[in-house]
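Researcher: Let's do a round of design. I'm pasting the structure tokens now; please hold your answer until I've finished.
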């Protein structure tokens, strides 16, 4: 819903009708004030004490609440009723127009919803990025320092806005931009304490002390899906519950609880104005253990509330309604493992208390084995930070190291997520990620797509048949090192077994013919489909094995210019109109929907037209595709690169290695505005200012790139400290695009291949003898320098200590830069 101007002279709310959800933060005083403001400006409050009063959603335009935890939340969204916080009313009145409702949504997934930020001494590009990120995650951005601001983003305390905060003793937090960066990378709001000026912890000299965990309310009462009888909450000394009022609850037989416990629960419900029923057709709440069975299937089809025993206990303890989707282990668990997780051995590190218990139970629920200790046979280590012996051992043993979000989101979406996703391997240096455990919600759409109406069929279908559906997913999502090899080889074996023994695959369910039995014509067709699918899978497996064995693993799409299936970069002919287009311009506007109509593979970096506008971005990308321009996400796939100017983003830097045609982002806007595929003449990127700033001539760099053929650093041995400024993964991607891989250096002795026989030991010009360490110039990294030099010299190699700028400048200019101005001195160690 876009912002609207005053729709009527009778008041901005004259076309609106409201319901108010009462809660602890929204008590009588707040509700009374809201009612007065709404009525004063022409609105009508239909219900002012929900959920105590019934709600007719069709009569409402807005629901005012501080939480999304009320029974009709999802139904309201389905009927396009706007659910907003009380601040939405205040903001609308202040501006005399209806404020944008998304900025005031109580949905916890919009984790910046309580943040209003302004930037102080930041460059314009950084301000735009922060503003876009905050808006996308439900927060607000202000260019000025107003009373509504909660956070001032600054690099130091020496600027006017921060001085104003100090002078007037304003209740605002002054933080480094790093805080927003880490929050957006994780998709969670972490504590801003370590990022707070004037003395931010993250800027202090790194030490060996691990970040301490913080109390976590999100897993309290939600650490297990099926509590035992001993944890039954008591009503002794308490008033009767209100949470079960008008609830008709069915306790399913799959709970397998004793009759004594069942009687106690029935009594609690009955004495609290609820009703216990025996048939799901009469119920509006189902309590069950598993996502299967007749009652579960009917309940999900009816779209009534479905939760498990832990959820029921939570309602009893708090006497406050909460959605069973909000906490992962409050919703019934699947009866079978998530495809791809069966057989994985996962260990935990640096999580404690209920957060650890929650993750242990979640790992079991997802179908993997949770081990107390870490051994070489483990496939994954889930850790809250990277300062631990377990992490060091895992990295030495080539075990995938991820944070808990990988487990949570795989479970929430019921699909194995790729461990190479940057969100799952990001560890803020001064944050213990245990503080954000349990914030992930069950994906309601996943429930509807994968369990509702199909659950009973899944129970009745042999497990061996269902497991065949996961083979391709397991290849893409499992660990990129040792466990990838196991997953790939296992997939091959499963593929052979499945093709020989099982008539059904996921394609059967997708066609709507899940109940066909063996021996029917449909079953024969399913076998053929399965065989064809597995034939396709064998090609994917072969490509995966080829990429996995390449030095550095599968990074940045994993393709080289010489690979058969890679789109060749720098082909100018791809931008030229066809002969038919030249004779008939109208043909340029015709929809292009098949792969043969693609005339340009475009990589985009730094385009501001889509900042904070996800919907517009999706629509524009679709339109570009119809015009013959396929927007790609990896430099190896691009024939063209579009950017507003010369950038030093990872995407831009890596793309240069493939020598694409570099265009201004004006080209994108021109094609969209004219609704046709345009010639690129006149749209080549020209940026003299940044060429001078970075000491690069773009035309020359692209010519060098063509000659280099992604081999600029080929044969160069480069090590890099793990906490390098800019990020190890970023530099790794740039190095990969230029023909080498970075090896993380942690101060341990490693064998460096000796120089080639016959090469001159004292020749500094002989690059084959050289070995480089990319390092920060700080105390922590300096301690590593003598060890690295000794290690190199023992291998008869010539060591060089360099700052990251050497690699970045060389990559941007596409020529190896002289070492002198980038060297670090061992004397400073």
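Researcher: That's everything. Go ahead.
Model: Designed sequence:
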């Amino acid at each position: 819903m876009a912002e609207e101007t005053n729709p009527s002279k009778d008041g901005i709310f004259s076309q609106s009708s409201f319901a108010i959800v009462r809660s602890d933060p929204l008590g009588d005083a707040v509700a009374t004030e809201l009612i007065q403001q709404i009525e004063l400006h022409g609105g009508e409050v239909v219900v002012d004490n929900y959920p105590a009063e019934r709600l007719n959603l069709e009569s409402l335009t807005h629901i005012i609440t501080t939480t999304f935890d009320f029974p009709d939340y999802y139904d309201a969204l389905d009927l396009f009723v706007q659910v907003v916080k009380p601040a939405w009313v205040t903001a609308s009145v202040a501006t005399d127009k209806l404020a944008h409702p998304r900025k005031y949504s109580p949905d916890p997934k919009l984790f910046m919803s309580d943040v209003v930020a302004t930037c102080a001494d930041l460059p314009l590009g950084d301000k735009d990025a922060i503003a876009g990120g905050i808006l996308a995650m439900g927060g607000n951005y202000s260019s000025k320092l107003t009373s509504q601001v909660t956070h001032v983003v600054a690099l130091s305390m020496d600027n006017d806005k921060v001085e104003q905060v100090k002078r007037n003793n304003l209740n605002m937090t002054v933080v480094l931009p790093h805080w927003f960066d880490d929050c957006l990378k994780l998709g969670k709001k972490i504590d801003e304490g370590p990022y707070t000026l004037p003395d931010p912890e993250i800027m202090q000299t790194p030490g060996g002390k691990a970040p301490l965990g913080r109390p976590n309310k999100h897993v309290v009462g939600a650490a297990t899906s099926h509590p035992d009888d001993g944890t039954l909450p008591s009503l002794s000394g308490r008033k009767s519950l209100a949470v079960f009022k008008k609830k008709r609850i069915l306790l399913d037989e799959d709970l397998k609880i004793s009759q004594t416990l069942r009687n106690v629960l029935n009594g609690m419900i009955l004495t609290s104005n609820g009703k216990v029923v025996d048939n799901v057709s009469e119920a509006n709440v189902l309590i069950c253990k598993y996502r299967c069975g007749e009652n579960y299937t009917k309940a999900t089809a009816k779209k009534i509330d479905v939760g498990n025993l832990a959820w029921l206990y939570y309602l009893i303890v708090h006497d406050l309604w909460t959605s069973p989707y909000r906490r992962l282990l409050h919703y019934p668990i699947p009866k079978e493992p998530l495809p791809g997780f069966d057989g994985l051995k996962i260990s935990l590190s640096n999580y404690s208390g209920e957060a650890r218990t929650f993750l242990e139970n979640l790992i079991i629920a997802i179908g993997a084995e949770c081990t107390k200790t870490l051994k070489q046979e483990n496939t994954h280590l889930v850790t809250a930070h990277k300062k631990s012996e377990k992490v060091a051992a895992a990295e030495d043993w080539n075990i995938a190291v991820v944070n808990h979000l990988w487990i949570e989101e795989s479970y929430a979406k019921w699909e194995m997520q790729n461990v190479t996703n940057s969100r799952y391997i990001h560890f803020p240096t001064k944050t213990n990620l245990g503080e954000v455990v349990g914030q992930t919600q069950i994906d309601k759409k996943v429930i509807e797509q994968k369990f509702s109406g199909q659950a009973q069929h899944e129970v009745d279908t042999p497990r061996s048949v269902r497991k065949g559906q996961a083979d391709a997913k397991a290849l893409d999502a499992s660990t990129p090192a040792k466990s990838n090899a196991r997953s790939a080889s296992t997939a091959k074996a499963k593929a052979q077994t499945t093709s020989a023994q099982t008539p059904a695959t996921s394609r059967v369910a997708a066609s709507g013919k899940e109940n066909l039995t063996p021996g029917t014509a449909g079953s024969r067709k399913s076998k053929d489909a399965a065989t064809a699918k597995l034939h396709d899978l064998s090609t994917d497996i072969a490509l995966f094995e080829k990429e996995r064995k390449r030095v550095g693993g599968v990074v940045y799409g994993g393709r080289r210019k010489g690979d058969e299936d890679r789109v060749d970069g720098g082909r100018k002919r791809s931008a030229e109109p066809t002969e038919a287009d030249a004779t008939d311009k109208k043909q340029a506007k015709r929809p292009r929907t098949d792969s043969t109509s693609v005339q340009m593979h475009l990589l985009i970096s730094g385009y501001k037209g889509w900042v904070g506008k996800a919907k517009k971005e999706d629509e524009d990308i679709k339109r570009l595709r119809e015009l013959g321009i396929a927007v790609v996400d990896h430099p190896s796939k691009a024939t063209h690169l579009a950017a507003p100017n010369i950038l030093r983003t990872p995407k831009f830097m890596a793309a240069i290695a493939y020598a694409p045609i570099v265009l201004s982002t004006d080209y994108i806007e021109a094609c969209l505005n004219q609704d046709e595929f345009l010639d690129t003449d006149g749209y080549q990127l020209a940026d003299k200012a940044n060429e001078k700033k970075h000491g690069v001539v773009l035309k020359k760099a692209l010519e060098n790139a063509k000659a280099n053929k992604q081999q600029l650093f080929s044969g160069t041995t480069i090590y890099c400290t793990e906490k390098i400024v800019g990020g190890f993964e970023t530099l790794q991607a740039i190095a990969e695009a230029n023909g080498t891989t970075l090896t993380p250096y942690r101060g341990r002795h490693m064998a460096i291949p000796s120089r080639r026989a016959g090469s001159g030991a004292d020749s500094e010009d002989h690059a084959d003898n050289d070995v480089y360490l990319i390092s920060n110039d700080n105390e922590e990294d300096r301690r590593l320098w003598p060890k690295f030099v000794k290690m190199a010299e023992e291998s008869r190699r010539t060591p060089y200590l360099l700052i990251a700028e050497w690699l970045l400048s060389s990559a941007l200019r596409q020529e190896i830069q002289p070492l002198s101005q980038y060297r670090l001195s061992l004397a400073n160690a």
